Write the structure tokens for this entry.
Amino acid sequence: MEKKDLIIRIAGQGGEGVISIGDFIAAACARAGQEVTTYKTFPAEIKGGYAMYQVRTSLDRIFNPGDAFDVLCAFNGEAFTKNQHLLVPGTAVVYDYPGGDFEPEIPPGVYPYPIPMSRMAGELKASRSKNMVALGALSHLFNINEETLIEVLSKKFRSKGQEVLEFNLTAFTKGKALAQELVKNDPWRMADPVAPKDVIILSGNSAIGLGAVLGGLQFFSAYPITPATEIAKFVAKHIPKVSGVLIQAEDEIASISQILGASYGGKRAMTATSGPGLALMSEMLGMATMSETPVLVVDVQRGGPATGLPTKHEQSDLFLAVHGSHGDAPRIVLSVEDVNDCIHMTIDALNLAERYQCPVILLSDGSLAFSTQTVAAPDLDTIPIIDRKRWDGEGEFNRYVITPDGISPMADPGTPGAMHVATGLEHGPSGAPNQSAANHEAMHAKRFGKLKTVVDVFKPVEVDGAGEADMGIIAWGSTIGVVREAVARLRDEGFRVKGFYPKLIHPMPVSQYEDFAKTCRSILVPEVNYQGQLSYLIRAETTLSPISFTICGGSPFTPIQIMHKVKEIVSCP
Amino acid sequence: MSLATTSKTPLKSRDYKSKVPVVWCPGCGHHGVLKAIYDALAAAEVDPSKLACISGIGCSSRTPYFINSYKMHTLHGRAGAVATGTQLARPDLTVMVMGGDGDGFSIGGGHMPHMARKNVDMTYVLFDNGIYGLTKGQYSPTSRREMKSYTTPYGGPDDPLNPLLYMLTYGATYVAQGFAGKPGICAELIKGGLEHKGFSYVHIFSQCPSFNTLDTNDFYRSRIEMVPPDHDVTDLGSAMALARMGHYGSAPMGLLYKEERATLDERMQMIIDGTGGHAGYDKNMIINELRP
């Protein structure tokens, strides 16, 4: 299969501008008509520690950050050492030499490009310009479009004054000149620019914020937690423009309490957190279920339990999201695959909360949180807004009246004639406390029953491939993007494989799982947690007996890992 | 806060009474506080359909059921946080919180400072009976140390906290104290809280005849002392001195402190106005900022 993409990994120390130049490359590529997906890791410390930014670009759609890199740019010895094992023959390495803190031994077959980044930054009397020297060199060596890069730099630095811009451009030009002195003999070059598409470029976290604002959000309560905080940053900036409110609460318990209060007041409300915060919210999630109050909670998962691996990727909050509360507390759980989903499924999640008057949990994850991707610019005319069913003013108002679809009309405070209590005590149709056995059973049936149509209302699970397969792969969250590529590559190699990509995790679309399984000889469920949480839920709720394939090393899967696993199980074609 | 201006005939106290029967024990101080709340709502002419009464868990947290209004009966300790959301989402409403000493200062203690310092425009009526009544008599954060209770058979190990000093310290802009045996004074203080723009904290001693045999009606009666007529309610230092005095000896009754300060919803509106925000804002402007 001809390789149409290019993957550049920049590695260095936190604070050296690794992340900045990664962002510049991503934006420049987007301006040059390329699709972009990035992946970054950064230290849990504020200063220092290893930081890495990987940019994958292609003229075709990209589903994940890739297996490994084609080009490494190492800012220091640690960055080189950490990636040395990935320097396979044919890859290229740009590194800080001479004058850096290391003199690397270049593995055989690797194309070396020593660029004295630190020394040049020293000559420019600004150690902070090291990254711009590197960027100039990378641009020249790998055909990263200079014109669009300079546009991006101008846009970025314009607000900081002409002097800052000039200075950065000087460092960029110096880096380019250094690269021009070297002989290029590797094959890696970015595709030439094509007409730019109508895209925006943003991280998964910003995309959830954008989806919230586009989805009519009016109230957000925030509490800082890695890796979710950036969602609040986006919403805080933009929600006042649409007359909405973001408040920073004293803790996550207060956050979810405040959004329940705001939703009772008639407003679309959400919060965003990570696993530890979701754990704190679990009691109030039950309150949202019991009082039938629409709320959206986004959980950007990280490594756990406890403080765990706060900046690392994991998909281990599924049990908590699906079952986390006391009592029988139904809710809707969705999970996003990519940045595009982060926008559109946040809108879906707000709509589902309103429609079904229940808590909705949207699961994202650490790698998606900070992955920058190009996505089609949203078209405001096609964004659906579904509001809660409100009382029509006819007859007597009973907040929890039993209806055929289990959904009872709500009334905002201020509505004459509809004064009622929203309560966490078990209650009868009027809201008055009622502890009788018959009532508790009837109300449970109402709260669970109303969610039965969710699987019909939500879009069907995407099946990747047709006909019979030797292996069906079920993936959730950002693992889907990895599986998409693995499935395509395995097919190219002659394997009969299919993918099944649920976004509605709970209630589980059981018949769709079973229909899919009927076409596959075996089922594999790769996920980034120790227990195989989706596998567990599949075994509990369906007749499937999937093979669980789990990793939990703080990073997402790569396509090659999935391919190897499939090949282990399925004999060669 | 929204005071009714449209109703033709003024509402009477009984118009705020819901049809739900009151469930408290005979002799419970909460009956007096409830009467004071009805009277205060009538006196402040609050429109019941624009009133949101929010509570957590405890005997006093049942109060919203007895009031003709919109109401939420939430989780233990969370009433204030829920009410903060309702108030910010709907500044046109009158928001009240009713709850007890355990609900407010033990499990919900983390929320108290923030409602106060943010000056959330609501009235918090705290029924202090110095005991967990609904769970049949455990010592609370306002119990006296010598109290022998369910969980302190030999007397309690901790000193009580000082709610008035706490709320003054964290920046509540209206702080008052009453006694359930004096519902007329309580009604005046609650009415003042409803009319005050900002976070109003009204602390009311309310005896629990079933489980707190230490803090009897007679005990409270002997302890309370009216705030001196020459007390300056705008002087935080004097208010704190009165609150401290109450901790060790007599308990001041009346309004201790009142301050005019911008409320959280007013400051939020300033942020919205600062961005030129309005409901019809063209969201394409936000999308355009994200182009590469």
In short: Chain A has a mean pLDDT of 95.
